[in-house]
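Bumping with the actual sequence this time:
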Amino acid sequence: MRTAAVNRMFRAFTDPIRLRILLLLREDEMCVGDLVEVLQVPQPTASRHLRYLREAGLVEVRKDGRWCFYSLTEARTSFHAKLLDCLGSCFQEAPELEGDQARAKRLRMTGGCCPPGCEETSR
């Protein structure tokens, strides 16, 4: 793995919002609207961090009609796998995470802003 790619992945983990996004995406894919609601940040902020995570190779996007769903990418290298493992064990004590997890759970129970099977015109 090239040094630039490793550096970019490490930098992705250094921002609190990007780290929170990665931890949320461990559970399931999410759309930007749901991430905005859970993280309680403006949409442009969430989108900017998602773009950074995509460029770092940590997040991928799946388009469904006019909706974009983000998820963690599968590990491509042993380094990438170790970073994803670290998400599960290294960052569980960050103070924002408890609130994020509670909001995400409530949101998932209601289907979020773009639940599966929703009509493109329903929003």
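The tokens above came from a reply further down the thread. The domain at 3-107 is CATH 1.10.10.10 (Arc Repressor Mutant, subunit A).
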